[in-house]
Each structure stands twice: as C-alpha cells, then as structure tokens.
Design brief:
By secondary structure, the chain is of the alpha+beta class. It contains 5 helices and 4 strands. Helix 2 crosses helix 4 and helix 3 packs across helix 4.
C-alpha cells in the first residue's frame, strides 16, 4: 500500500495521496489489534497525519449520520452515569478502628458505631502532619 499511497508532489513539496489507498488505510486503522503508529511507519507517513485522517473520517461519518437522521456505526464516546449505593449496615454492627499516628500515638476504638468511626476519621484527616510542623 505504501508504494501507491503517494501519487505525486505539489510545488511546495507536499504529497498528494491516492484517495482509494487513503480510504483503505483509514479502514485498516479501525480493525482490532492494529497499531496506527506501526501502520503509518510501514506506509512511510507520519503517525499524526494518519491520526488526523482517521479523526476527520469519524467526524464526517457522524455529520452524515446526523444529517440523514440515522445512527452512525462510528464508535463515539458515550458516558453513562453509574449510581452506586452504599451497602446497608445494620445499626447494631460495631466497627473496629485502630490508627497509628506518626508520633507513636495509637488510637484504638474496639467497638464503636459507624457515625463515631466516621467522625474520628474526619478529625484525623484534618490534623496537620508532624513532618509539616518541623521547622
């Protein structure tokens, strides 16, 4: 494909590419397991140029699909919100919490409820680090 990709050069040295070979190269980039950089290197073109061709082709396909009102077969990024609910914790359940501070102090709460554990963790998180207090 490399030998038929470039058909001529313009006066300023830029290449003129064969439309059919360019289309085949763009389609090849869509196959699973294909490295765009390796494919570009094998064809003697810059990987950024090939990436630009692929992006332009995807935009063109999306625009055509939007204009015709049909769904495009282009892999457009889709974000789906995911709601994660915390598991229900029985009120009776005790939490065991032990924290070893850098100054050697050990905070040990053998059987506290979840609210107490959260409050303690929040308070410990607000404490200044002993390393930052030196000086």
């Amino acid at each position: 494909m490399a030998e038929r990709l470039i058909v001529s050069r313009k006066r300023d040295g830029r290449c003129v590419y064969d439309v059919q070979a360019k289309r085949e190269l763009i389609e090849a980039c869509g196959r699973p397991g294909i490295s765009m950089a390796k494919l570009a290197r094998d064809c003697g073109i810059n990987a950024n140029l090939l990436s630009t061709w692929v992006r332009k082709n995807e935009r063109k396909a999306v625009a055509l699909a939007a204009a015709s009102g049909t769904d495009a077969d282009v892999a457009a990024p889709v974000f789906v919100p995911v709601h994660i609910e915390a598991p229900a914790v029985p009120e009776q359940a005790g939490v065991q919490l032990q924290a070893r501070l850098p100054n050697g102090v050990v905070v040990d709460m053998a059987s506290c409820d979840l609210a107490q554990a959260c409050a303690l963790l929040e308070t410990l998180g607000r404490l200044r680090c002993s390393a930052s207090m030196k000086g």
